[in-house]
Amino acid sequence: MIAERKRLSSGLTVTSKVFVRSRNGGATKIVREHYLRNDIPCYSKLCNKCQLVLKPDANGELPQFILSESPLKLNSGSPHYVVLDTNIILHAIDLVENIDCFFDVIVPQTVLEEVKNRSFPIYQRIRSLVKSDEKRFVVFHNEFNEATHVSRMKDESSNDYNDRAIRKVAEWYNLHLNTNNNSTTPVRILFITNDKDNLSKAKAEGIDSMTLSEYVEDLPNADVLRDLIPTETSSFDNIKETSYPEYYNNSRIMGGVKNGTLYQGMLNISTYNFLEGSVQVAAFKKPLLILGTRNLNRAFNGDSVIVELLPKDKWREPSTTIVEESTVGADDNAEEEDQEETSIISDKERRVLAQDAIKASSAIAEGTTDNNKLQPTAKVVGIVRRSWRYYVGQIAPTSVSQDHDSGNSAKSCFVILMDKVLPKLRIRTRKAKELLGQRIVVAVDSWPSTSKYPQGHFVRCLGEIESAEAETEALLLEHNVEYRPFSKSVLDCLPAEGSNWTVPEDFGPKRKDLRDKLVCSIDPPGCVDIDDALHAKVLPNGNYEVGVHIADVGHFVKANTALDNEGASRGTSVYLVDKRIDMLPMLLGTNLCSLKPYVERFAFSVIWELDENANIVNIDYMKSVIKSREAFSYERAQNRIDDPSQNDELTQSMRVLLKLSKKLKQKRLDAGALNLASPEVKVHMDSETSDPGEVEIKKLLETNSLVEEFMLFANISVARKIYDAYPQTAMLRRHAPPPATNFETLNEMLAVRKPGMNISLESSKSLADSLDRCVDTKDPYFNTLLRIMSTRCMMAAEYFPSGSYGYPEFRHYGLAVDIYTHFTSPIRRYCDVVAHRQLAGAIGYENLDLSHRDKSKMDLIVKNINKRHRNAQFAGRASIEYYVGQVMRNNESEQEGYVIKCFNNGIVVLVPKFGVEGLIKLDVLGDINSAEFDEEKYELSFTDFAGKKRVVGVFDKVRVDVKSIKDEVTGKRKAQLVLK
């Protein structure tokens, strides 16, 4: 390679890298040119040079100078600007974002690119800081500035090259600003890095540099900020509690994955046994079991891991023992250092693993093992990608001693995380005692191989445990839901709040006027973000015209705007019991786009001509203008349809819709669509106090089904249209058939507990029919229970761009259709926004943005919205669980429940009335020593405290006392069930 630099007549400098590539005996010369400028500003208001020489751009605007003329002073008395290294942003982003720290910050382009490549979420956060005026962050394009561009030296690593480029920025700013300063006070340019090598080189080059800790200590508010500093591994160098196996190096991992001796997958930790994880890999039908902390080897739930298969004599069945993290290592001291190295495995863990191993070995030796139940086992040998995020928990009171009050030095303590499958976290803080009883946010920094527990640092306090505000924010953080207010740049994409936007008289020739149609909406009571509306009428030929009209969000949300980027990032709205976290600003969802009654609104319409049997005769797609005649709740619409005295045109049209929807549903069921179930409940809130009042199981009316059927119908029709137009990038949704192994345990339970019943998996039709046949005449609820348990055996549906799979794999198993998408809720789902744009392109209404015609970009979009959709579901369920707990708090009652799992030391019971399930451990059921677990019969026998012999098994109906208690370990309120 030959590097050259020359100046052009225009004043620009161009650097050229000349490569000679040899291939098949021939030589190819490759020239890569990089243009440098001498007019890139420093963005400081203190600089008189940049502000004088810069010229306006094509729009007549000058670059905005952001860095303050009166920057913050350190305790040492000097005003300063800060240049940040990559590691500071990656590991201390919460401190960088803190409103009490970091102002007038220079982010070199080199740093920004490194952050983008290593963590896109953190990149987005730093970009948000740059857009914010409050903290004054600027991106300096050092790689295009003639004075700061550096060429790569021979044999220099990319990391060393980047470090040198960043140091050059700090050096240049110091010289530039203190030469051209229009103030009498010199400004100090501080380079902040925690990289020891980079720090030592910076000091050797005369650059004013500090570690993050040194910088924070020199700030006036250091006392507030100290606990936010990420814990350096060196802070825990003296802790030698254990010795985890070291991870394999990259070359060994790459070679092992390539030759098939190592496997990559996502780790899932068992809800009932934190010592047991599983990794699904394509090479095995059953997941690989990871048993014990040594084999889990510091991996977190959700980590992408590399695993190595263990010998067949170590293959095991999944454990039948409940083991919770809180019962293992409960007496560990967070502050002890230089203690004698101990085994990773606790005595209790050793007993559990030994029992499972003895049972497996005996069965193998006697030839009585059921090979169908055996699962291959493995160990974690590497981490590809950590799932670490912000976690919520509480400080363990037992880890806070009296000496936490003494002195100003940080003391170690444990934080018990709300997610019980995660280990406790060791942090160092000066505020441990005042944080007791509070929900706190923490971040994980590292997990050294010599520490039994991961290390982290305190981020912020949410409030008192069990307060509604703290618990709601906690569940949003736990499920990674973005809930911060929309930024000014996002809101600026919309009409002003009080502008009273209306449909313009001239709405263009391509948009159809459908204001004469008898359109109405049918939604849950109190719905304000109305996505969809319908109409129907009888045609002269006896057929029916039916229209589904969807809010035209695309009219306001244009591709690649700040508003669109925010919607794409959030992915979906999140519905909690007491609030809604919007994907798009409220003005859009509840006003501009909402298909409210009596006002004109833009819509995207799908209109069919259907015959008497609901077969499609014709179909048309159009952007439209509609005027809804009425907004019904499900119950009000049902009452109006059922009232024989109501015979107006609108009511007649709803009756047509109901008649046709029943035929559509029957067609789906005949094709094999599944009718599954989940324990859905509704929490009623007091309208004045917002306190939870009562819980009831959701009631579904015919009008619920009416709306559902036509939304499904529209989604299927749109899917076909956009796939025809964009066969590689159409936004679709698929639902894969469940592997037979997913239903093995459930079918074994049925064979033993309900002889003659079984679930067939040949097709969705056979599954649906077999579920219909599983009826217990003595217990009407049993069929619903079985559908709930079957739902948990299914695969999750997912969004995908059409080019990712062959057409047969597009199939939506649960709906029994060959192709499907989401089109009907663009106010609350980003998938639907993309589908709208693709449909608009398919019908020639407008050109489709390139981002939705590029498969790699669509892959990124669907990856994010799949994750966001899943998180939103979990957050909604967690909200219901919290408020159900509040309802039950002072209302202990006896309820009917069903046993859904059996272990050798407890049972799990589902209570349909509240939609909750609770673990009842053996030690509260009766005499532990008298208990016997029959694994083949899925039943547990024991002597209760009254001396009575009892036997309970899966599917048994039981009576339980239900009350709400606070878990002393996690601080979460949970249902406590006591068997009657």
From TrEMBL:
It is found in: Nucleus. InterPro entries: Dis3_CSD2 (IPR041505), NA-bd_OB-fold (IPR012340), PIN-like_dom_sf (IPR029060), PIN_dom (IPR002716), RNase_II/R (IPR001900), RNase_II/R_CS (IPR022966), RNR_Ribonuclease (IPR050180), Rrp44_CSD1 (IPR033771). This is Exosome complex exonuclease Dis3p. Residues 80-200 form the PIN domain. Belongs to the RNR ribonuclease family. SMART domains: PINc (SM00670), RNB (SM00955). One of its GO terms (molecular function) is exonuclease activity. The lineage of its organism: Eukaryota, Fungi, Dikarya, Ascomycota, Saccharomycotina. The gene is DIS3. Keywords: Exonuclease, Exosome, Hydrolase, Nuclease, Nucleus, RNA-binding, rRNA processing. PANTHER family: EXOSOME COMPLEX EXONUCLEASE RRP44 (PTHR23355:SF35), RIBONUCLEASE (PTHR23355). Residues 511-845 form the RNB domain.
